[in-house]
Amino acid sequence: MKKIGRSLFVLVAAVGVAFVIQSSEPETTLTNYQGTYTCHPGVIYDPASVEEVEAIVASALAEGKTVMTGNRKFASQIDAACAGEGQVQITLKNMDKIVHFDAVQKQVTVEAGMRFNDLNEFLRAQGLAVNMVTELGTFTIGGMLGSGTHGSTLEKPSNMLADYVTAMKVVDGQGQARVLTGDLLNAARVNLGVLGVVVEVTLQLEDAFKVRASVNGYRSDDGLEDQVLDIARSHYSANIAWFPGLGRYTTTIYEPVPLETPGNAYNAQADVSDLEEFFFGLLFNAAHEFPGSGLQCLAASARYQARADSYFRDLETGRKVSDPVGYSDQMQYFKCKDPNRCIWDRLPIALQEVAIDIEQLPDWIRDVRQIVAAHPKTCFPLNGIYFRFGQASKSYLGMSAGRDTAFVGIEYTLRQEGKKAPKNYFVNLEIEQMSLRKYGARPHWGKNSVAIFEDMPSRFNRWPEFLQAKETLDPFNVFTNPFWQRVSGEIPLEDYLTPGCNTRGECYCQTDAHCDTGTSCQAGLYFEDARICRP
Known about the structure:
The chain is α+β, with helices and mostly antiparallel strands.
Protein backbone atom coordinates (compact mmCIF):
# COMPACT_ATOMS: atom_id res chain seq x y z
CA MET A 1 0.00 0.00 0.00
CA LYS A 2 1.36 3.46 -0.85
CA LYS A 3 2.12 5.53 2.25
CA ILE A 4 1.62 9.20 2.99
CA GLY A 5 2.84 11.16 5.99
CA ARG A 6 1.06 12.05 9.21
CA SER A 7 0.02 15.43 7.84
CA LEU A 8 -3.35 14.16 6.64
CA PHE A 9 -4.11 12.62 10.03
CA VAL A 10 -3.23 15.94 11.71
CA LEU A 11 -5.54 17.74 9.30
CA VAL A 12 -8.38 15.36 10.15
CA ALA A 13 -7.92 16.04 13.87
CA ALA A 14 -7.73 19.77 13.25
CA VAL A 15 -11.24 19.91 11.77
CA GLY A 16 -12.67 18.31 14.86
CA VAL A 17 -13.65 14.82 13.73
CA ALA A 18 -10.85 12.74 15.22
CA PHE A 19 -13.32 11.40 17.82
CA VAL A 20 -14.29 8.63 15.44
CA ILE A 21 -10.92 6.94 15.97
CA GLN A 22 -12.59 5.21 18.92
CA SER A 23 -14.71 2.25 17.81
CA SER A 24 -18.24 2.32 19.15
CA GLU A 25 -18.30 -1.32 20.23
CA PRO A 26 -15.54 -3.55 21.63
CA GLU A 27 -16.13 -6.56 19.35
CA THR A 28 -13.49 -7.03 16.69
CA THR A 29 -14.97 -9.96 14.77
CA LEU A 30 -17.59 -10.28 12.04
CA THR A 31 -19.49 -13.48 11.32
CA ASN A 32 -21.64 -14.38 8.35
CA TYR A 33 -25.34 -15.14 8.64
CA GLN A 34 -24.75 -18.85 9.32
CA GLY A 35 -21.79 -18.50 11.63
CA THR A 36 -19.61 -20.51 9.25
CA TYR A 37 -17.15 -17.72 8.40
CA THR A 38 -15.53 -15.29 10.84
CA CYS A 39 -13.38 -12.28 10.02
CA HIS A 40 -10.87 -10.54 12.31
CA PRO A 41 -10.34 -6.86 11.56
CA GLY A 42 -8.27 -4.79 13.93
CA VAL A 43 -11.10 -2.37 14.68
CA ILE A 44 -14.77 -1.95 13.75
CA TYR A 45 -16.35 1.50 13.38
CA ASP A 46 -20.07 2.28 13.23
CA PRO A 47 -20.14 5.86 11.86
CA ALA A 48 -23.36 7.88 11.88
CA SER A 49 -22.47 10.51 9.26
CA VAL A 50 -20.58 11.07 6.03
CA GLU A 51 -18.11 13.24 7.93
CA GLU A 52 -17.30 10.40 10.31
CA VAL A 53 -16.69 8.05 7.39
CA GLU A 54 -14.38 10.63 5.81
CA ALA A 55 -12.38 10.84 9.03
CA ILE A 56 -12.09 7.06 9.40
CA VAL A 57 -10.82 6.62 5.85
CA ALA A 58 -8.41 9.55 6.11
CA SER A 59 -7.00 8.15 9.37
CA ALA A 60 -6.63 4.66 7.85
CA LEU A 61 -4.79 6.15 4.89
CA ALA A 62 -2.42 8.06 7.18
CA GLU A 63 -1.71 4.91 9.18
CA GLY A 64 -1.21 2.63 6.17
CA LYS A 65 -4.35 0.58 6.90
CA THR A 66 -6.89 -0.83 4.48
CA VAL A 67 -10.67 -0.41 4.80
CA MET A 68 -13.73 -2.51 3.96
CA THR A 69 -17.46 -2.03 4.58
CA GLY A 70 -19.63 -4.91 5.80
CA ASN A 71 -22.13 -5.77 8.52
CA ARG A 72 -21.35 -7.71 11.68
CA LYS A 73 -23.73 -10.42 10.47
CA PHE A 74 -22.94 -10.30 6.78
CA ALA A 75 -24.96 -12.01 4.04
CA SER A 76 -22.15 -13.86 2.30
CA GLN A 77 -20.63 -17.31 2.52
CA ILE A 78 -17.07 -16.03 2.26
CA ASP A 79 -15.01 -12.95 3.07
CA ALA A 80 -16.20 -10.63 0.29
CA ALA A 81 -17.11 -7.81 2.72
CA CYS A 82 -14.45 -8.43 5.37
CA ALA A 83 -11.48 -6.21 6.05
CA GLY A 84 -8.16 -8.01 6.14
CA GLU A 85 -6.90 -9.31 9.46
CA GLY A 86 -5.96 -6.41 11.70
CA GLN A 87 -7.34 -3.82 9.26
CA VAL A 88 -10.25 -1.34 9.47
CA GLN A 89 -13.88 -2.48 9.20
CA ILE A 90 -16.79 -0.07 8.77
CA THR A 91 -20.44 -0.96 9.25
CA LEU A 92 -23.23 1.39 8.18
CA LYS A 93 -25.81 0.20 10.70
CA ASN A 94 -26.22 3.79 11.95
CA MET A 95 -26.60 5.23 8.44
CA ASP A 96 -30.01 3.85 7.50
CA LYS A 97 -32.13 6.95 6.89
CA ILE A 98 -33.93 8.56 3.96
CA VAL A 99 -31.95 11.65 2.95
CA HIS A 100 -34.28 13.16 0.34
CA PHE A 101 -37.53 12.22 -1.37
CA ASP A 102 -38.82 13.82 -4.58
CA ALA A 103 -42.34 12.65 -5.42
CA VAL A 104 -42.46 14.69 -8.63
CA GLN A 105 -39.22 13.30 -10.09
CA LYS A 106 -39.95 9.91 -8.50
CA GLN A 107 -36.54 9.70 -6.90
CA VAL A 108 -35.36 8.89 -3.41
CA THR A 109 -31.92 9.32 -1.83
CA VAL A 110 -31.11 6.98 1.04
CA GLU A 111 -28.16 6.21 3.24
CA ALA A 112 -26.45 3.00 2.14
CA GLY A 113 -27.10 1.19 5.42
CA MET A 114 -30.86 1.25 4.90
CA ARG A 115 -32.52 -2.15 4.54
CA PHE A 116 -34.31 -2.79 1.25
CA ASN A 117 -37.54 -3.89 2.95
CA ASP A 118 -37.60 -0.69 5.03
CA LEU A 119 -37.25 1.36 1.85
CA ASN A 120 -40.09 -0.57 0.25
CA GLU A 121 -42.35 0.06 3.25
CA PHE A 122 -41.75 3.80 2.86
CA LEU A 123 -42.25 3.81 -0.91
CA ARG A 124 -45.46 1.79 -0.80
CA ALA A 125 -47.03 4.45 1.42
CA GLN A 126 -46.09 7.06 -1.22
CA GLY A 127 -47.62 5.04 -4.07
CA LEU A 128 -44.18 4.32 -5.55
CA ALA A 129 -41.92 1.32 -6.04
CA VAL A 130 -38.49 0.20 -7.24
CA ASN A 131 -38.56 -1.60 -10.58
CA MET A 132 -36.31 -4.42 -9.46
CA VAL A 133 -37.34 -6.58 -6.51
CA THR A 134 -34.99 -9.22 -5.14
CA GLU A 135 -36.26 -12.35 -3.43
CA LEU A 136 -34.96 -11.45 0.03
CA GLY A 137 -35.65 -7.95 1.24
CA THR A 138 -33.43 -7.65 4.31
CA PHE A 139 -30.21 -6.71 2.49
CA THR A 140 -28.81 -3.21 2.87
CA ILE A 141 -28.80 -0.92 -0.15
CA GLY A 142 -25.02 -0.67 -0.02
CA GLY A 143 -24.65 -4.43 0.24
CA MET A 144 -26.92 -4.94 -2.77
CA LEU A 145 -24.69 -2.64 -4.82
CA GLY A 146 -21.52 -4.24 -3.52
CA SER A 147 -22.49 -7.69 -4.77
CA GLY A 148 -25.00 -7.00 -7.57
CA THR A 149 -28.09 -8.43 -5.89
CA HIS A 150 -30.77 -9.27 -8.44
CA GLY A 151 -34.30 -10.54 -8.98
CA SER A 152 -35.86 -11.94 -12.15
CA THR A 153 -37.43 -10.00 -15.01
CA LEU A 154 -36.83 -9.54 -18.71
CA GLU A 155 -39.70 -7.06 -19.09
CA LYS A 156 -38.18 -4.32 -16.95
CA PRO A 157 -34.95 -2.53 -17.99
CA SER A 158 -32.94 -4.49 -15.41
CA ASN A 159 -33.34 -7.07 -12.66
CA MET A 160 -30.59 -5.43 -10.56
CA LEU A 161 -31.08 -2.56 -8.13
CA ALA A 162 -27.71 -1.27 -9.35
CA ASP A 163 -29.16 -0.18 -12.69
CA TYR A 164 -31.78 2.10 -11.08
CA VAL A 165 -29.14 4.22 -9.36
CA THR A 166 -28.99 7.74 -10.82
CA ALA A 167 -26.30 9.08 -8.49
CA MET A 168 -24.06 7.68 -5.78
CA LYS A 169 -22.11 9.44 -3.05
CA VAL A 170 -18.94 7.66 -1.96
CA VAL A 171 -16.08 8.48 0.35
CA ASP A 172 -13.05 7.87 -1.84
CA GLY A 173 -9.62 6.53 -0.97
CA GLN A 174 -8.39 9.93 0.16
CA GLY A 175 -11.22 10.40 2.65
CA GLN A 176 -13.25 12.80 0.52
CA ALA A 177 -16.97 12.51 -0.27
CA ARG A 178 -17.80 12.79 -3.95
CA VAL A 179 -20.90 12.17 -6.06
CA LEU A 180 -20.47 9.74 -8.94
CA THR A 181 -22.25 9.99 -12.28
CA GLY A 182 -21.44 8.88 -15.82
CA ASP A 183 -18.65 6.34 -16.31
CA LEU A 184 -17.60 6.34 -12.66
CA LEU A 185 -21.18 5.58 -11.65
CA ASN A 186 -21.34 2.67 -14.08
CA ALA A 187 -18.14 1.30 -12.58
CA ALA A 188 -19.50 1.68 -9.04
CA ARG A 189 -22.96 0.19 -9.62
CA VAL A 190 -21.49 -3.20 -8.65
CA ASN A 191 -18.36 -2.22 -6.76
CA LEU A 192 -17.29 -5.08 -4.42
CA GLY A 193 -16.52 -2.39 -1.83
CA VAL A 194 -13.17 -1.61 -3.46
CA LEU A 195 -13.95 1.80 -5.02
CA GLY A 196 -14.85 3.57 -1.77
CA VAL A 197 -17.43 3.61 1.00
CA VAL A 198 -20.86 4.03 -0.58
CA VAL A 199 -22.69 6.37 1.82
CA GLU A 200 -25.72 7.65 -0.12
CA VAL A 201 -27.62 6.37 -3.15
CA THR A 202 -30.27 8.02 -5.35
CA LEU A 203 -32.74 5.62 -6.98
CA GLN A 204 -35.18 6.10 -9.84
CA LEU A 205 -38.69 4.96 -8.90
CA GLU A 206 -41.97 4.21 -10.67
CA ASP A 207 -45.62 4.10 -9.70
CA ALA A 208 -46.48 1.30 -7.29
CA PHE A 209 -48.13 -1.75 -8.79
CA LYS A 210 -49.48 -5.12 -7.79
CA VAL A 211 -48.76 -8.53 -9.25
CA ARG A 212 -50.68 -11.78 -9.53
CA ALA A 213 -48.67 -14.93 -8.90
CA SER A 214 -49.19 -18.33 -10.47
CA VAL A 215 -47.40 -21.37 -9.04
CA ASN A 216 -47.32 -24.62 -10.99
CA GLY A 217 -45.61 -27.98 -10.70
CA TYR A 218 -44.74 -30.16 -13.70
CA ARG A 219 -44.12 -33.84 -13.07
CA SER A 220 -42.17 -34.25 -16.31
CA ASP A 221 -39.24 -32.08 -17.40
CA ASP A 222 -39.24 -33.43 -20.96
CA GLY A 223 -38.43 -30.60 -23.33
CA LEU A 224 -37.70 -28.04 -20.62
CA GLU A 225 -34.66 -26.84 -22.57
CA ASP A 226 -36.93 -26.04 -25.54
CA GLN A 227 -39.45 -24.13 -23.40
CA VAL A 228 -37.35 -22.34 -20.80
CA LEU A 229 -36.65 -19.16 -22.77
CA ASP A 230 -40.29 -18.85 -23.83
CA ILE A 231 -41.31 -19.08 -20.17
CA ALA A 232 -38.81 -16.38 -19.26
CA ARG A 233 -39.68 -14.01 -22.10
CA SER A 234 -43.46 -14.28 -22.11
CA HIS A 235 -44.01 -13.09 -18.53
CA TYR A 236 -43.17 -10.04 -16.44
CA SER A 237 -41.19 -12.22 -14.03
CA ALA A 238 -40.46 -15.96 -13.91
CA ASN A 239 -38.58 -18.21 -11.49
CA ILE A 240 -38.05 -21.86 -12.37
CA ALA A 241 -36.93 -24.61 -9.98
CA TRP A 242 -35.71 -27.66 -11.91
CA PHE A 243 -35.29 -31.01 -10.13
CA PRO A 244 -33.39 -33.06 -12.75
CA GLY A 245 -32.90 -36.04 -10.44
CA LEU A 246 -36.69 -36.31 -10.22
CA GLY A 247 -37.46 -35.26 -13.79
CA ARG A 248 -39.72 -32.43 -12.53
CA TYR A 249 -39.80 -28.65 -12.33
CA THR A 250 -41.91 -25.83 -10.93
CA THR A 251 -42.59 -22.29 -12.12
CA THR A 252 -43.53 -19.16 -10.22
CA ILE A 253 -44.88 -16.56 -12.63
CA TYR A 254 -45.71 -12.94 -11.81
CA GLU A 255 -47.85 -10.65 -13.96
CA PRO A 256 -48.60 -6.97 -13.24
CA VAL A 257 -52.20 -6.04 -12.42
CA PRO A 258 -53.80 -2.64 -11.72
CA LEU A 259 -53.13 -1.23 -8.28
CA GLU A 260 -56.83 -1.32 -7.40
CA THR A 261 -57.02 -5.10 -7.95
CA PRO A 262 -58.24 -6.72 -4.70
CA GLY A 263 -55.64 -8.72 -2.84
CA ASN A 264 -53.18 -8.31 -0.02
CA ALA A 265 -51.05 -11.44 -0.27
CA TYR A 266 -47.39 -11.88 0.57
CA ASN A 267 -44.62 -14.38 -0.21
CA ALA A 268 -44.53 -16.82 2.72
CA GLN A 269 -41.95 -19.33 1.52
CA ALA A 270 -39.74 -18.57 4.54
CA ASP A 271 -42.61 -19.11 7.01
CA VAL A 272 -41.44 -22.54 8.07
CA SER A 273 -42.96 -24.01 11.21
CA ASP A 274 -40.80 -25.47 13.97
CA LEU A 275 -42.12 -28.93 13.06
CA GLU A 276 -41.24 -28.49 9.38
CA GLU A 277 -37.79 -27.25 10.29
CA PHE A 278 -37.25 -30.22 12.60
CA PHE A 279 -38.36 -32.63 9.86
CA PHE A 280 -36.11 -31.10 7.22
CA GLY A 281 -33.18 -30.99 9.63
CA LEU A 282 -33.50 -34.72 10.34
CA LEU A 283 -33.94 -35.53 6.66
CA PHE A 284 -30.97 -33.45 5.51
CA ASN A 285 -28.67 -34.92 8.14
CA ALA A 286 -29.80 -38.48 7.44
CA ALA A 287 -29.28 -37.93 3.70
CA HIS A 288 -25.63 -37.15 4.43
CA GLU A 289 -24.89 -39.94 6.86
CA PHE A 290 -26.58 -42.97 5.27
CA PRO A 291 -25.35 -44.72 2.11
CA GLY A 292 -27.15 -44.20 -1.18
CA SER A 293 -29.14 -41.22 -2.36
CA GLY A 294 -32.68 -42.29 -1.55
CA LEU A 295 -33.09 -39.90 1.36
CA GLN A 296 -31.66 -37.03 -0.65
CA CYS A 297 -34.22 -37.67 -3.38
CA LEU A 298 -36.95 -37.95 -0.74
CA ALA A 299 -35.96 -34.49 0.51
CA ALA A 300 -35.99 -33.21 -3.08
CA SER A 301 -39.50 -34.62 -3.55
CA ALA A 302 -40.70 -32.83 -0.44
CA ARG A 303 -39.19 -29.55 -1.65
CA TYR A 304 -40.67 -30.02 -5.12
CA GLN A 305 -44.13 -30.43 -3.62
CA ALA A 306 -43.66 -27.38 -1.39
CA ARG A 307 -42.71 -25.29 -4.43
CA ALA A 308 -45.49 -26.74 -6.60
CA ASP A 309 -48.16 -25.56 -4.15
CA SER A 310 -48.97 -21.91 -3.50
CA TYR A 311 -46.68 -20.48 -0.83
CA PHE A 312 -48.50 -17.15 -0.63
CA ARG A 313 -50.58 -16.07 2.35
CA ASP A 314 -52.96 -13.25 3.17
CA LEU A 315 -51.34 -10.53 5.28
CA GLU A 316 -54.37 -10.16 7.55
CA THR A 317 -55.49 -13.75 8.06
CA GLY A 318 -52.23 -15.61 7.52
CA ARG A 319 -54.10 -18.19 5.44
CA LYS A 320 -52.82 -19.61 2.16
CA VAL A 321 -54.15 -17.93 -0.99
CA SER A 322 -54.79 -19.96 -4.14
CA ASP A 323 -54.97 -16.93 -6.48
CA PRO A 324 -52.56 -14.51 -4.81
CA VAL A 325 -52.49 -10.80 -5.62
CA GLY A 326 -50.46 -8.24 -3.71
CA TYR A 327 -47.98 -5.39 -3.89
CA SER A 328 -45.00 -6.23 -6.08
CA ASP A 329 -42.41 -6.07 -3.32
CA GLN A 330 -44.40 -8.13 -0.80
CA MET A 331 -45.19 -10.76 -3.41
CA GLN A 332 -41.73 -11.09 -4.94
CA TYR A 333 -39.50 -10.95 -1.90
CA PHE A 334 -39.84 -12.93 1.28
CA LYS A 335 -38.71 -12.17 4.78
CA CYS A 336 -38.66 -14.09 8.03
CA LYS A 337 -41.17 -13.53 10.81
CA ASP A 338 -38.18 -13.35 13.13
CA PRO A 339 -35.23 -11.87 11.16
CA ASN A 340 -32.80 -13.38 13.67
CA ARG A 341 -34.18 -16.90 13.26
CA CYS A 342 -34.51 -17.57 9.55
CA ILE A 343 -34.35 -21.23 8.59
CA TRP A 344 -31.10 -20.73 6.66
CA ASP A 345 -29.51 -19.38 9.85
CA ARG A 346 -30.20 -22.63 11.67
CA LEU A 347 -29.93 -25.33 9.02
CA PRO A 348 -26.50 -25.55 7.35
CA ILE A 349 -27.14 -24.49 3.76
CA ALA A 350 -24.71 -23.28 1.08
CA LEU A 351 -25.39 -21.68 -2.28
CA GLN A 352 -23.61 -21.46 -5.57
CA GLU A 353 -24.87 -19.26 -8.37
CA VAL A 354 -23.47 -18.37 -11.77
CA ALA A 355 -24.68 -16.29 -14.70
CA ILE A 356 -24.45 -17.33 -18.34
CA ASP A 357 -25.52 -15.78 -21.63
CA ILE A 358 -29.26 -16.40 -21.80
CA GLU A 359 -29.04 -17.89 -25.30
CA GLN A 360 -26.79 -20.65 -23.96
CA LEU A 361 -29.24 -21.85 -21.32
CA PRO A 362 -30.92 -24.57 -23.46
CA ASP A 363 -27.54 -26.14 -24.23
CA TRP A 364 -26.50 -25.80 -20.58
CA ILE A 365 -29.61 -27.73 -19.52
CA ARG A 366 -28.81 -30.47 -22.03
CA ASP A 367 -25.29 -30.77 -20.64
CA VAL A 368 -26.53 -30.92 -17.05
CA ARG A 369 -28.86 -33.75 -18.04
CA GLN A 370 -25.78 -35.66 -19.19
CA ILE A 371 -23.91 -34.97 -15.95
CA VAL A 372 -26.85 -36.13 -13.83
CA ALA A 373 -27.24 -39.23 -16.03
CA ALA A 374 -23.56 -40.03 -15.39
CA HIS A 375 -24.16 -39.79 -11.64
CA PRO A 376 -27.33 -41.88 -11.10
CA LYS A 377 -29.73 -41.04 -8.27
CA THR A 378 -28.36 -37.55 -7.82
CA CYS A 379 -30.98 -35.16 -6.46
CA PHE A 380 -30.89 -31.50 -5.50
CA PRO A 381 -32.84 -31.40 -2.25
CA LEU A 382 -33.49 -27.70 -1.64
CA ASN A 383 -34.71 -25.66 -4.61
CA GLY A 384 -33.40 -27.92 -7.32
CA ILE A 385 -31.49 -25.91 -9.91
CA TYR A 386 -32.97 -22.44 -9.79
CA PHE A 387 -33.32 -20.20 -12.87
CA ARG A 388 -33.84 -16.44 -12.91
CA PHE A 389 -33.41 -13.92 -15.74
CA GLY A 390 -32.35 -10.35 -16.48
CA GLN A 391 -31.51 -7.95 -19.28
CA ALA A 392 -28.00 -6.72 -19.95
CA SER A 393 -26.68 -4.38 -17.26
CA LYS A 394 -24.74 -1.16 -17.82
CA SER A 395 -22.61 -1.97 -14.77
CA TYR A 396 -19.02 -3.01 -15.42
CA LEU A 397 -18.92 -5.97 -13.01
CA GLY A 398 -22.56 -6.99 -12.63
CA MET A 399 -23.25 -10.65 -13.36
CA SER A 400 -25.34 -9.52 -16.35
CA ALA A 401 -22.89 -6.83 -17.52
CA GLY A 402 -23.30 -6.36 -21.25
CA ARG A 403 -25.43 -9.44 -21.95
CA ASP A 404 -28.95 -10.74 -21.37
CA THR A 405 -28.46 -13.34 -18.70
CA ALA A 406 -29.76 -16.53 -17.16
CA PHE A 407 -28.88 -16.85 -13.47
CA VAL A 408 -28.41 -20.45 -12.37
CA GLY A 409 -28.37 -21.34 -8.69
CA ILE A 410 -27.83 -24.56 -6.77
CA GLU A 411 -28.39 -24.73 -3.03
CA TYR A 412 -27.13 -27.69 -1.05
CA THR A 413 -27.08 -28.83 2.54
CA LEU A 414 -23.92 -29.10 4.60
CA ARG A 415 -23.12 -31.68 7.24
CA GLN A 416 -23.81 -30.34 10.69
CA GLU A 417 -20.18 -30.39 11.74
CA GLY A 418 -19.31 -28.51 8.56
CA LYS A 419 -16.04 -30.40 8.11
CA LYS A 420 -16.90 -32.93 5.42
CA ALA A 421 -17.97 -32.43 1.83
CA PRO A 422 -21.75 -32.44 1.30
CA LYS A 423 -23.49 -35.46 -0.18
CA ASN A 424 -22.80 -35.69 -3.93
CA TYR A 425 -20.81 -32.46 -3.76
CA PHE A 426 -18.69 -33.71 -6.66
CA VAL A 427 -21.74 -33.56 -8.96
CA ASN A 428 -22.24 -29.90 -8.10
CA LEU A 429 -18.55 -29.27 -8.76
CA GLU A 430 -18.68 -30.94 -12.18
CA ILE A 431 -21.63 -28.70 -13.10
CA GLU A 432 -19.83 -25.68 -11.66
CA GLN A 433 -16.60 -26.26 -13.56
CA MET A 434 -18.49 -26.96 -16.79
CA SER A 435 -20.34 -23.65 -16.34
CA LEU A 436 -17.10 -21.75 -15.85
CA ARG A 437 -14.98 -23.37 -18.54
CA LYS A 438 -17.46 -24.18 -21.28
CA TYR A 439 -20.05 -21.43 -20.83
CA GLY A 440 -17.94 -18.53 -19.56
CA ALA A 441 -20.06 -18.27 -16.43
CA ARG A 442 -19.71 -15.39 -13.99
CA PRO A 443 -19.99 -16.33 -10.30
CA HIS A 444 -22.22 -14.39 -7.93
CA TRP A 445 -19.95 -12.06 -5.95
CA GLY A 446 -21.58 -12.72 -2.58
CA LYS A 447 -22.28 -16.44 -2.78
CA ASN A 448 -20.13 -19.39 -3.80
CA SER A 449 -16.76 -20.63 -2.57
CA VAL A 450 -13.15 -19.52 -2.92
CA ALA A 451 -12.46 -21.94 -5.78
CA ILE A 452 -15.11 -20.68 -8.19
CA PHE A 453 -13.55 -17.25 -8.71
CA GLU A 454 -11.05 -18.33 -11.34
CA ASP A 455 -9.84 -16.06 -14.16
CA MET A 456 -12.29 -13.33 -13.16
CA PRO A 457 -10.76 -10.48 -15.21
CA SER A 458 -11.31 -12.50 -18.40
CA ARG A 459 -15.04 -12.82 -17.69
CA PHE A 460 -15.88 -9.10 -17.92
CA ASN A 461 -15.28 -7.02 -21.02
CA ARG A 462 -14.99 -3.82 -18.97
CA TRP A 463 -12.67 -5.11 -16.27
CA PRO A 464 -9.89 -2.71 -17.45
CA GLU A 465 -12.26 0.26 -17.13
CA PHE A 466 -13.18 -0.88 -13.60
CA LEU A 467 -9.49 -0.88 -12.69
CA GLN A 468 -9.16 2.62 -14.15
CA ALA A 469 -12.05 3.75 -11.96
CA LYS A 470 -10.34 2.21 -8.95
CA GLU A 471 -7.14 4.09 -9.73
CA THR A 472 -9.15 7.33 -9.96
CA LEU A 473 -11.17 6.83 -6.78
CA ASP A 474 -8.64 4.90 -4.71
CA PRO A 475 -5.10 5.79 -5.88
CA PHE A 476 -3.48 4.49 -2.67
CA ASN A 477 -5.39 1.17 -2.69
CA VAL A 478 -7.05 1.77 0.67
CA PHE A 479 -10.08 -0.30 -0.27
CA THR A 480 -8.87 -3.85 -0.64
CA ASN A 481 -9.16 -7.16 1.19
CA PRO A 482 -8.19 -10.81 0.64
CA PHE A 483 -11.31 -11.42 -1.46
CA TRP A 484 -10.43 -8.64 -3.92
CA GLN A 485 -6.82 -9.78 -4.00
CA ARG A 486 -7.97 -13.27 -5.02
CA VAL A 487 -10.55 -12.31 -7.65
CA SER A 488 -8.24 -9.70 -9.19
CA GLY A 489 -5.43 -12.27 -9.43
CA GLU A 490 -3.10 -10.52 -6.99
CA ILE A 491 -3.24 -13.66 -4.83
CA PRO A 492 -3.28 -16.71 -7.13
CA LEU A 493 -5.80 -19.44 -6.33
CA GLU A 494 -2.90 -21.89 -6.53
CA ASP A 495 -1.91 -20.62 -3.08
CA TYR A 496 -4.98 -22.44 -1.73
CA LEU A 497 -3.90 -25.84 -3.08
CA THR A 498 -3.32 -27.40 0.32
CA PRO A 499 -4.34 -30.76 1.83
CA GLY A 500 -8.12 -31.09 2.06
CA CYS A 501 -8.76 -27.81 0.21
CA ASN A 502 -11.57 -29.28 -1.91
CA THR A 503 -13.59 -30.19 1.17
CA ARG A 504 -13.29 -26.59 2.40
CA GLY A 505 -14.38 -25.19 -0.99
CA GLU A 506 -10.98 -23.57 -1.48
CA CYS A 507 -9.87 -25.45 -4.59
CA TYR A 508 -10.76 -27.75 -7.44
CA CYS A 509 -8.59 -30.76 -6.78
CA GLN A 510 -5.41 -31.49 -8.71
CA THR A 511 -4.16 -34.38 -6.59
CA ASP A 512 -5.72 -36.88 -4.19
CA ALA A 513 -4.26 -34.91 -1.26
CA HIS A 514 -6.74 -32.14 -1.97
CA CYS A 515 -9.66 -34.50 -1.36
CA ASP A 516 -11.45 -35.83 1.70
CA THR A 517 -10.56 -39.25 3.10
CA GLY A 518 -12.06 -42.04 0.99
CA THR A 519 -12.14 -40.01 -2.23
CA SER A 520 -9.66 -39.35 -5.01
CA CYS A 521 -9.21 -36.61 -7.58
CA GLN A 522 -10.76 -37.74 -10.88
CA ALA A 523 -11.91 -36.30 -14.18
CA GLY A 524 -15.59 -35.45 -14.48
CA LEU A 525 -17.70 -38.35 -15.71
CA TYR A 526 -19.26 -36.21 -18.46
CA PHE A 527 -17.33 -32.92 -18.51
CA GLU A 528 -13.87 -34.40 -18.51
CA ASP A 529 -12.08 -31.07 -18.03
CA ALA A 530 -13.52 -30.94 -14.52
CA ARG A 531 -11.56 -32.30 -11.57
CA ILE A 532 -13.73 -33.71 -8.81
CA CYS A 533 -13.15 -35.67 -5.61
CA ARG A 534 -15.17 -38.87 -5.96
CA PRO A 535 -15.34 -42.09 -3.91
